[in-house]
Amino acid sequence: MEREVWNSKIGFLLAATGSAMGLGNVWRFPYITGANGGAAFVLIYFIIVFSIGVPVMLAEFAVGRSSKLNAVGAFKKLKGGKWPVVGWIGIIAGFIILSYYSVIAGWTIKYFISSFTGLISPNVNTTTYFNQFTSNGLQNIFFQAIFILITIYVVYLGVEKGIETWSKILMPILILILLLLVIRGVSLPGAPDGIRFYLNPNFSEVTGRTILAALGQAFFSLSLGMGAMITYGSYIPKEISLPKSAFIVTFLDMLLALLAGFVIFPTAFTFGIEPGAGTGLIFITLPSIFALMPFGQIWSALFFLLLFIAALTSAIGLLEVSVAYVKDERNWSRKKAALALGTTAFIIGVPSALSNGTISLNLFGMQFLDAMDYLSSNILLPLGGIFVTLFVGWVIKDTALKEINLEGKFKFEKSWIWICRTIAPISIFLIFLAGIGLL
Q1: Which domains does the chain have, with CATH numbers?
Q2: Helix or strand or coil: residue 407?
Q3: I need a surface site. Which of 23, 123, 280, 329 has the fewest CB within 10 A?
Q4: What is the DSSP string of 218-275?
Q5: Is pTM, for the whole model, over 0.85?
């Protein structure tokens, strides 16, 4: 069976950026920035993204394209032994994330609809509204199912006709909506104070915890360690430069996260809310603020449509990781794989949909959804990232260098290998230690 490839460079770049650009970029980046002192954090984040994020993404692209296989098959082909376990870590992490991510993504569909059906009103208690909705298991499952079905449909269509085509449609819409919301944000009365907080660094507030938070955000916002970039990399034609691609995808991902801050911070400072308020900021505080704005229903609908698209482009990448595996290793058809694995992810996600009040589902002393997030984000993803960089830096160095130099000499190749061998794995190990509470 001939392996699918991206039909165009722009299609691949938009697909990869879409995979990286998830819910975390829209709400988590502004939230982490707000909780860590604003502009000083942003500057540290940018430095880390380009010094560590780009090299790790390039490493994953190199593993994918040099093998032209899925996350497990890539390690099996390039070295074998125990190394395919690294691919399994990514596949399992991605599958777990997809299961609960689809629940939260379902909330964005509900809130998009509710923007026109009574949510955006000064008379609505948005805290009560959110709590009642998330504790309604059947509603959560219903919207989760809608989201998963859309994800399955895109992956079902294939790399070119599905993922690439829809990325070319969805990403420009996402960028347009984001720009409209930015224009609205910077026109608010409190915008200057919010922008000042966002862009004027105060390094007196920087601590080791700030740097660690920036390190974690840089790693997680780029969808690293879960096999997505290895899988997408396996579809890259030989004529596309991997170093340039890694830089462009990282830059676009970072730019979109930065723009999201121009939506959140002017709004937060105008209406006197805490910019480090987390998930509640998105589903509780912002709807009550939209209710105070002219044309609030429209702004609310656009915002939750933005969140939905960001979630969808990431979920497509998550599902594709496991679909590519069963296609390559088990000879399943793409259609069978997309339907079977998407349905399985939905079923595994049902306990997460029910764990917010319908029934009491606890694991490791946490709600089921939070436990799944902890397991994937704090343990599996960092482990995957550590071993991918070590694999490239120490085990397949010559193969990786040959792959990234196909389109011309990469002048930073020595620095890249050095980062993969030392700086990146050490940095990701610190993220791991912080995630499990040992740092």
Answers
A1: 9-436 (1.20.1740.10)
A2: coil
A3: 123
A4: HHHHTT-SSSHHHHHHTT--TTS-HHHHHHHHHHHHHHHHHHHHHHHHHHHHHHT--T
A5: yes
